[in-house]
Amino acid sequence: DAGVIQSPRHEVTEMGQEVTLRCKPISGHNSLFWYRQTMMRGLELLIYFNNNVPIDDSGMPEDRFSAKMPNASFSTLKIQPSEPRDSAVYFCASSLVLLAGPTGELFFGEGSRLTVL
Amino acid sequence: AQSVAQPEDQVNVAEGNPLTVKCTYSVSGNPYLFWYVQYPNRGLQFLLQYITGDTLVKGSYGFEAEFNKSQTSFHLKKPSALVSDSALYFCAVRDGVNTGFQKLVFGTGTRLLVSP
Fold first, then answer.
1. By C-alpha distance, which of B36, B88, B49, B98 is closest to A48?
2. Which residues contact B3 (CB under 8 A, 6 or more apart)?
3. Per 3-state DSSP, what percentage of chain B is helix, strand, and coil (rounded to 5)?
4. B33 → chain A, closest CA residue
5. How far is A18 from chain B (nearest CA, A)?
6. A57-104 per-position pLDDT tens digit
């Protein structure tokens, strides 16, 4: 398997523009997570999905952020409008979570580095 | 809420020497603890996880972690460090009581530098 695939790897945009980050999870995984990493705040969980349904979006900073998972093989994280403080590395991760089993590991993508000017 | 703390921003060790990266936890109920590693410009990679009952957990790349309930610690260890072990290490704990959902909360990370 190719692992978790994220695009774009790098994005530079101007304040006010819309940004869309994409993620393809590992085939067969039923949970998907979006994390944001910054020097100041470390790794923050933004939202996670189970079986394509958003379970917890309490980490989404504000209404400018939205995430969707229309099917098991694709998810997007959108920022509209973008602001300089959104500059960070955004990671997507997937996992196979079994209700009756132990907690499985997260598989992370390579990340999307966003710079908002 | 569950949390972990990594008290050291950076750990320096000479190649061949043993290394320890510290992590303490605060949980209610059974702890589900993990270690992940991040190499420059890469995503995080799973190293190991604590399974209830074990005190020494073995993981990838020769790493192991020692679970100590009385000290609420889960320190990452390796008997002999390699220069290639230089990376950012994260301790994590599963938050939430629902077995079916896995929400990991990460520590602030510890940068490990192994000198030749």
1. B98
2. B25, B26, B27, B93, B105
3. 5, 50, 45
4. A103
5. 24
6. 989 988 999 999 999 999 999 999 999 999 999 999 998 877 655 566
